[in-house]
Structures are given as C-alpha cells and as structure tokens.
Amino acid sequence: MQTKRTIFPNKLLPYLLLAPQLAVTLIFFIWPAVQAVKSSFEREDPFGFKTTFIWFDNYKRLFADPTYLNSVGKTAVFAVSVTLLAMSVSLLLAVSVNRVLRTNRVYTTLLVWPYAVAPVVVGILWWFMFNPSIGIAPYLLRGLGINWNHRIDGSHAMLLVIIAASWKQISYNFLFFVAGLQSVPQSLTEAAAIDGAGPFKRFWTIVFPLLSPTTFFLLIVNINYAMFDTFGIIDATTSGGPAQATNILVYKVYADGFLGLNIGSSAAQSVVLMLIVIALTAIQFRYIERRVQY
Amino acid sequence: MVENRPLLSFLTHLVLIVGVVIVVFPVYLAFVASTHGNGDFLSGLVPLLPGPNLIENYRLMLTEGISTAGAPPLWIMLGNSLVIAIIIAVGKIAISLLSAYAIVFFKFPFRLLAFWIIFITLMLPVEVRIIPTFKVVADLGLLNSYVGLTLPLIASATATFLFRQFFLTIPDELMEAARVDGAGPLKFFRDILLPLSRTNIAALFVILFIYGWVQYLWPLLVTTDSRYYTVVMGIKRLAATADGEPQWHLVMAAVMLAMLPPVLVVIFMQRLFVKGLVETEK
Known about the structure:
The structure holds two protein chains of two kinds. Chain A is mostly helical.
C-alpha cells in the first residue's frame, strides 16, 4: 500500500491516532456482524433461556420459505425498475442541461435538492399524492378509468414505491452524469458534426460510449441504493404490504427481527444481505482499478 | 453547442421544464396542504392553491406539536436533529482525519490490517446488521441518549478514503521541509495538514450533515423517550395515526420544516455539496 517517501518515526502515535476509528468499528460494526453470523447458526427457545447450534437449518428453512423467495423476487423487480427509471430520466435531464448554455445553473439548482430529502419524507410526499381518498393522482387516474388503490392492489403499491424511490435518486445520478458529460472532449463531437453526424447520432456513437464508466458506476450505486437505502420509503408508504407485495429484503429483516422477533431467521437474512453488499462493493472496486476505457 | 437547431433547443428546454415540474410538484403539493385548515381535505380532493392557515399551522406544530399522536413540539425534534447531524458530521470527519493521517504518514506493524478493518465498514450498512448492533447499544446502556444515537453511525470508510487520497497528493517536500524546521508530527498535522484540508473538510461536512439529518431507522430503534426524537422519525409517528386519516395540514407543515434545513444547505452550498458528493464516491 502507498505511503509517503519520508515518514514520521514515532512508534506509538499512529496507534493512538487510529484508536478512535478502530474502536468504533470493532464495537459497532465487526462485533455485531460476528454476532449476526453466529446467531444465524443457532436457534433460540421461545423463552430465550437456551440456544442450540443447528448448523445451516436457518438458511435451509429460509430458502424453502415461499415468503422469503417472494421477497427476493420483489427486491429484484424493485431494484431493476428503480435503477432503470432513475438512470434514464437523469441521463435525459443531464444531456439537456449540458446543451443549455446560459440557464444551466438555474436548472441544476432546481434539480439537485431532492438529494437532501429523507427517504421517509419522500415516502410521505408520494403517499400523500397517491392517497386513494384525497390524493390528486388517483383523482386524475379515475378520469382515465383506473381505480388506483395501493392499499389493496399489490402492483399499484409496487409502482408507487418504484416512482417514489426513483424520484429521490434522480438528483444524485443527474450530478454524476453532468460531471461525466463535461469530461467528454468537445473536439470529438465537433469533428463528428463536421463529418455530418446529427445530434442523436453523435450522442449514441460518441457521447454515450464515452460515458460508460459513469454509467457503470451509477448502475452499481443505484442497485445498492434501491436494495438498502429505501427502507424509509417502504416504511412510510406501504410497510411491505399489501400481502407482501412490496416486502423487499431489507424491510423483511427488520420486520422479522423486530416485529416478528424471529432472531435466527432474521440473522440468516442479515448474513445473506451482507454477502450481497460485499459482492456489490467488490464489483465496484474492481471497476475502479480497471475502468471501461477507449 | 456545435450547431444551431432551434427545434432541438426548444425540446431541450421542454424536457428540463418537465423535469423540474416533476421534481418540484410533490413538495409544492405538501406546501399547499400545509397552508390549509383541517376541513379543507374532507371534500375529497387536495386543494391546488395555498390557503390562509400558513402561520397558524406552523406555529402550532413548532410550539405545541400534536399531543394525541405522541409527538412533542417540533422545535425540540428539530433541535435534536441538528445536534445529531452535527455530532455525526464532526465526529466522522475528526476520526477519519486522524486515521487517514496515521495510515499515510506512518509505517507500523498491522497497518494493512487496520486499513482493511476500516474498509469493511463499507460493507456493513446499519440496515443489514440492525439487531446485533441494537443489542450492543442496549447492553452498553446507550438507548435514549445522544451517544447511542450517533456513535454507531460515526465510523466511516468513505471519509477516511477521501482524506487518504488527498494526503497522498500532498508533496513530500512539504513534510521534509517541516521536519527540517523541527516540526513534530502533531505540529505538522495542526499547522500544515489541517489548513490544506479545509475545502475537503467543508465539502465532506455538507454531505455528512445531510447523512446525519436523514437517518431514520436507527433513531427509530434506539429512542423511546420523546425528548430524543429526531424530526424525521417524528413525522412518521405523526402520519401513522391509528384511527382514520392523519391531520394532513399539520403533518405537511412538519414535513416542510423537516425538509427545509438540509435542502437549504444543498442550495446555498451547492459548490461544496457537488464537490463532496463526487469526491467521496471516487
């Protein structure tokens, strides 16, 4: 690992400097994670008096459980939809802002602030808009002959959380796409224009391929976001319902562990989620080492 | 722009305006709702223009709260959120500066191990390890305290990486010169490294302040005493009334107040915000 050519000779000082961060990490990150792995191999009796070691029973049970498999499916649908929707909308907006010369600061300011809105608050805002009794969206949809009710209809509920989660993520993707677009050399697009390529052709043959590092990075970040940071949105809009229709994995860990008090199963779910985060992080870091380049 | 195409320019602005409307509309609706009285929602449709109860609703929420929903006055929750967000931001920056300094400017046994332990925190978001973390905090007797609310969120690999990257770009000559002049490691840190990191610290502070403000699940778990409620979790309590529809005008007044501080931070410190966001992810 990289260091400076010259370093300070102190022996004790670096440990003291590292101590606060290592202490917090060991107590609140490593130790709980070890505990989660440990209790995922155990079963607690109903009174919490004794725990027995049961090898992979919790995992076997988990992967045989139809509600868990349902949750895996819902998470996949949710994550893919949010990623696609949020990324395509923000790419369109970023390309547009990049074309505008004078007013781009104004547009940027108006588009980036949702980053600072808490996920729960996002959930409440959209829940209010789509509220079946007083919301404006169901009122308009009724005019089109659609009877919106996300409290009963599972696909309506899924649609609602996808829209809400994408809305929040647009500002983030937008900023990264704008930064990516600004690093595409102007001379390339100019050369293509001289050769007679129109704006759309230029975008798809030059700008979009050169943007692929940003796109790939955002792909991973968005999947990560949809899977782990949307807890508040789900909690405020549907609470995983109706009938498990929006019960994504991260919400299920919480619901099973804290509301259902099924510690063994919840721990096994935590471990599965940790493995997913580790895989996503590993992909992200591999990519940082060797970027997609031309 | 490469060439002049009026139609395309028109389309560009159209796309942007539609985008801005989509982004702003839900918040506009919340604002409108927060300015009406209780009876205005019974007609079955949300009004689209502001009503007359703006000051009344906000004053009521700020000073009294809704006691039936178990929510304290909003100014208490806003104060808690502010304190927690600042503790988290300052704490993360402080411990990351120190550990990045140790990793870059010293050589010692187990340096790589320390780096990896910090790196692992990236892979363990709170949502994934809630129950065991909750148990640790409960065993330490930290429930319902600012320490319990902030300390478990304070370790941050991203901030450490950012400072490490930045420290590596600082020329070796600077440190050599400082050592020739007789500066020890602490003096070098305080008088040279800290002033040089000022912009990075400010940018990171903006991002981490927002991170701390929007925390929801963790405060929800570790606080049962309403004196420690943060505004983001308090709103959920307001909206989730057991019997019937919530009092929308008051809930939305609370929503507006909860959104305002971090959104203002983003708008007025946009340059730092963008810098912080783009650099912490690299």
